[in-house]
Design goal:
This protein has one domain. The C terminus is likely disordered. Helix content is 73%, strand content 2%. Strands 1-2 form a two-stranded antiparallel sheet.
Length: 369
């Protein structure tokens, strides 16, 4: 069994983030209201980026939980079904498990390097706000409330630490499946009930990796596509800080998309590598199928019923195997997952087009306003 979160603090945060983040955000609004009851809260007036970023973080952590929950079942399914087979089978190893592989992945996921990645992300976030001059508000006559406001402003920087830790685990999964062929063979199974050679679990895991980065990009999409949405454009354009924030999330979305695509391509390549041998097997199987059918036709009318039934059963089995070989899907995605994947691509492509100001050129070419 793979435990993706062993640190108790990380485990606690990923269980309770949906309560912690909104609660602290609401508390800060209440403090600012108590400091200046006749004014719009400072966060809403001057810190729209923080509001948007916390919305994006909520989405990222929600999708991150789904991603983390899929890691162990995916590896269990691959090893139990013998889709990953050791190049050197250990002595006394059971046929349905690979504890060394599970321990290796768990060790990578919880490596201390994740702390450095999370800390670096938090420091960069803090420096960004410091450079913008919004890190600390001027103290006012509100006394302790002013210091509480500053403390609540500092707390969300810690969220970025956990985002860095999550990004580390996403990268680890991508590297792990890319490097697994050094010690294991990837063995597709034609007759697997998922009709994807047994790799449906990989397709789902890759989509969850992509969604961790792409779903928060829905927030950035609002700001990047703002000028092209009539309902929003009437309120003016987002400021420069919001545009920088949106582009940062867009870049993260593209990286997440590439990580997921990379793992998908690795298993696609493993399936394609088998196609050469499969073509030979298909030809041989077709010859056997023809021979079996001819043998049935050559049997006399008074042939043994049991022998005839056995031959017909064998023909049915060969026909099923032949049909399965002819309709092999080389990507570990069914139609629904493929639609979800290309939907993610469209979301990011639309934002890239907005950044590159492609829409005005298209509208101009079409004679639009």
């Amino acid at each position: 069994m793979v435990t993706p979160l062993k640190d108790p603090i990380e485990k606690w945060f990923f269980r309770h983030f949906a309560v912690v983040i909104p609660a602290l955000y609401g508390l800060r609004l209440l403090v600012q209201y108590a400091m200046a009851p006749d004014e719009v809260p400072y966060t809403w007036r001057y810190d729209v980026v923080r509001t948007a970023s916390e919305m994006a973080l909520l989405l990222a952590f929600f999708m991150g939980n789904r991603f983390l929950a899929a890691i162990d079942p995916t590896l269990v399914a691959l090893t139990a079904n013998r889709l990953l087979r050791p190049r050197k089978q250990p002595e006394n190893a059971s046929s349905g498990s690979d504890p060394l592989l599970h321990r290796r992945l768990e060790r990578w996921l919880n490596d201390r390097a994740r702390i450095a990645v999370g800390t670096l992300a938090a420091v960069i976030s803090a420096l960004y706000y410091w450079q913008k001059g919004n890190f600390v508000r001027p103290a006012s006559s509100a006394g302790l409330l002013a210091y509480l406001d500053v403390a609540l402003y500092l707390v969300p920087v810690a969220y970025v630490y956990f985002l860095g830790v999550l990004a580390w685990r996403m990268g680890v999964i991508a590297v792990f499946f890319w490097s697994v062929t050094r010690t294991h063979h990837i063995v597709p199974q034609l007759l697997h009930p998922d009709h994807l050679c047994g790799f449906a679990v990989i397709g789902e895991l890759c989509l969850r990796i992509i969604y961790v980065a792409v779903v928060p990009a829905l927030v950035s999409g609002v700001f990047l596509l703002w000028p092209y949405i009539p309902l929003l454009s009437q309120y003016g354009s987002p400021n420069e800080t919001l545009e920088v924030f949106a582009r940062g999330i867009l870049c993260a979305g593209i990286v997440g998309l590439l990580l997921g695509w990379g793992v998908l391509w690795k298993f696609h390549k493993a399936i394609v590598d088998y196609l050469g041998q499969w073509q030979i097997d298909i030809a041989q199987l077709a010859d056997r199928l023809i021979a079996e059918k001819q043998s049935v036709l050559s049997l006399a009318a008074n042939a043994d019923v049991d022998l005839l039934a056995a031959r017909l059963k064998r023909i049915a089995e060969l026909q099923q195997l032949y049909d399965s070989n002819r309709h092999v899907r080389t990507w570990p995605l069914d139609r629904a997952k493929a639609v979800r994947l290309w939907g993610s691509v469209v979301i990011l492509a639309g934002q890239v087009a907005a950044v590159m100001e492609t829409f005005p050129r298209i509208l101009g070419a079409l004679g639009g306003p």
